[in-house]
Structures are given as C-alpha cells and as structure tokens.
Amino acid sequence: MPERTCVIDGCDRPAKSRGWCQTHYMRWRRNGDPLIVTSKPPLPTGCSIDGCAGSRYARGWCAVHYGRWFNHGSPDERTETVACVDCDVSFVRTRQGGALRCDPCRLAAERGYGRTAWEKKAAVLRAARAQARAANSRACKICGTIFAPSMSSGPLPSTCSQSCRKLDKDLRGAAWRKANPDKVRDYQHNRRAILRDVPHARIDEAVVAERDNFTCALCHEPVDCELRWPHPMSPSLDHIIPLSKDGTSHTYANVQLSHYSCNCRRGARPLEAAN
Length: 275
Description:
By secondary structure, the protein is mostly helical. Among the domains are: about 1-40, no CATH class; about 40-80, no CATH class; about 180-275, DNA Binding (I), subunit A, CATH 1.10.30. About 40% of the residues lie in helices and about 10% in strands. The longest helix is centred in the middle third of the chain and has 22 residues, at about 115-135. The mean pLDDT is about 80.
C-alpha cells in the first residue's frame, strides 16, 4: 500500500492527520489554517535602559542594571549628597542607604578601631546575657543546686541537669499513675489486646459499673466505686474470657464489674471454675 502524502499542493511529506503532514497540521492547530505561516518576532538583544549599549541579561536589562535592581530595588543609579558622620564634610554616595562616612574617615575607622569595636560590642552582649542569666538563678527542684538557666524563648527549666530532668519526669509520671489508676489499667488492657491482635476499645469503668448495677460478677456482693486501688474491695474490670485465651477481646461485651481481690483470685481461670 503506497504511503499517503500531504494533500497540500507542492508538499511531498507523509500525511499524519486530517490528510496533512505534521507541519501543516500544526499550522492548522495554531492558526486555524494549514497555509498560514506565523513566526515569532525576534527578541530584543539590548538593554532596555535608554543610553545603555549592554547586552540583555535578565528582565530586559543588562547585567549592571539588573544588579542595581537586585541590590537596591531600581535599575537606575541613585546618587545623593550626604554629610559624613565624623567630619561633617559632604560627599556623594552611589548607594542609597549605604556609607555613612567619607572615604578618609572610613579608612581611618577601619585601621584604628574597626575590629576593636566589634570586640567591645561582643563583650557587652556577653555581659548582658550573663547578667540576665544571673537574675534568673534558681534552685533545682530535685537536688536543690543553685543554677542559672540558659536563655531561651520557652519557659525556664526547673532542673539543673539532664539526670535531674529525667528523675523529675519519672516522679511526675509516678504521681499521675497513682492519681489515675483506672486509666493506667485501661491502658494496660488495651496494650495486651493490641499485642494479641484482638478487638479492643476504650472502656469507661463507670459505664460498666452502672450496667452491672454496682454488683461484683464473681462474689455477687455490692461494689463501692468510691474506693481506689490498691484497696482489695475497689472496683476493677474482669474479662469474661481472659485476654490470655483464644476468642477474647477488650470490649464492653467481654468485661464485667468485680472487686479487685475477686479479680486477682480468679486470675486466668474459666468463669465457671472461679464461681
């Protein structure tokens, strides 16, 4: 089968689409007519600033005017006459907001006390920082050592070292666990259920107690919910199917209210054997 050629007169290129070659097809896509030839106007090569013969670098400017715009916000050179802060002699500076001294005074300052001025400034800053630290000196809440905390944007530390911070964290954790035994036991049950990959959910002990009418499911005696762990008669959650057995879960359907001592006495035995 002979290869089709472009239907445009005088074009021998192979046809790609709509009977036209690639060139005429793209002309039709861009201009709506395969015979219209358009070309982009040539880009200017010179700087757009009047009187500048430099070649174009960026944003229509040469490298010099582009650098002025990048550093000072305008491609035009800006000069102004100002008075030297040392000798009060007027001089012309080419950068707005730049030099404050004339050249002789600037050179004298660099030779005489340029480096010393920075050293004095650094010493003043160090002294101010040390004074601020001394004003915030305090006693460590763990060991009682007087220390000056480092200046930071956050709250000032209450401990003097990393070991004291770790001990303070452990003490606060122990106090929280002692004040919230129900949350600790619920966390432990959830962790055991997660490790055994069984269904689990957050369980509110008060909801279970109200559901079971505040009665122990093992000894059938009333449970005083005002008692707290480790009192032997304090309330606890007993799993009907222990978490160590198959088919268990840590959900409302598998827990029941019991005394802490009854729960410990039952252990992981079946419910029939415990009763």
